[in-house]
Amino acid sequence: MAAKRIFQGLPWWVKWIAAPLLIIAVFSSPITSVVGLVAWLLFRALLLVAIIGGLIYAVRKFTSSSSSSSLSRSSRDDW
Question: Is 24 within 8 Å of 31 (Cβ atoms)?
């Protein structure tokens, strides 16, 4: 590969310290943007799951308590 030939003969610290630090310095803004976007999307997805879960819990709790006298025990457990 071309990268192997470029780094051939250079000290180890250039390959493993200097080059990665330069890459991070040059691409730090896009990396930060991507990490921020992923964190934002994950937070939104978890928030959506929590809201839907709360809605389902509330609907089941209120519908089962309002109709508990008309439903048998086995039909309520099917939910």
Answer: yes
Report the chain's terminal Cα–Cα distance, integer Å.
60
Residue-number span of the structural domain to which 24 is assigned: 12-66
Instruction: Give a yes or no: residue 3 inside a domain.
Output: no
pLDDT (tens, 9 = 90+) of the chain, 79 residues, equals 788 888 889 999 999 999 999 999 999 999 999 999 999 999 999 999 999 999 999 999 999 877 655 555 555 555 6
Q: What is the pTM of this model?
A: 0.55
Domain count, the chain: 1
Domain annotation covers residue 16: yes
